[in-house]
What we know:
Helix content is 28%, strand content 20%. The protein is an alpha/beta fold. It has a single domain, classed as Aldolase class I (TIM Barrel, Alpha-Beta Barrel). The strands form two sheets. The chain has an eight-stranded parallel beta barrel. A two-stranded antiparallel sheet has the order 9-10. Strand 1, helix 1 and strand 2 form a beta-alpha-beta unit. The two termini are 12 Å apart. The mean pLDDT is 94. Its EC number is 5.3.1.24.
Amino acid sequence: xxxxxxxTRIKFCGLTRPEDIAKAVALGVDALGFVMWPKSSRSIxxxxxxxxxxxxxxxxxxxxxxxxxxxxxxxxxxxxxxxxQFHGDESAAFxxxxxxxxxxxxxxxxxxxxxxxxxxxxxxxxxxxxxxxxGVPGGTGETFDWSRIPATLEKPVxxxxxxxxxxxxxxxxxxxxxxxDVSGGIEASPGVKEAELMAAFVRHVAQANTH
Length: 211
């Protein structure tokens, strides 16, 4: 099986409830994202992170999402995280200081050069590509033109931005990303996941991987 035909990993982001974690794990989701940025409608406190992260079993990656936040806060959350997601304007040096695997989110501005970004964030485990809306770090619910992603990018791509059960098969087929990241597309309301939408999303990714 070629690398392009390998199974697409799935990250559910913005988890706030134990029952949603249990459902995601039962569906075989690879990673669960916890939003630590207080301005997000899906944010949780470090104490809530401790409680929720304790319910995630082995081999499911616990990801903490931060947006231009103090190193002290990130250090406080580290015991409950396996991977850090930097979703702001953090420098590579800032991202590297925590001794923990990390990914860098990039918003797809018109002038972005992904090859240069891959060099700048060479120590990242992957690049997460999200839609760009001025003043909004993520969670826009909007897609971007997937054809802008170079096929030869030097880093694994995590595709985000407006993904739903309705468009994820097309996204996986066109982009062949290493992973996909969904939040609003599986929700009844911000931070409250919908079981049927979660299951449909996972099902459509699996179906796209078999074609």
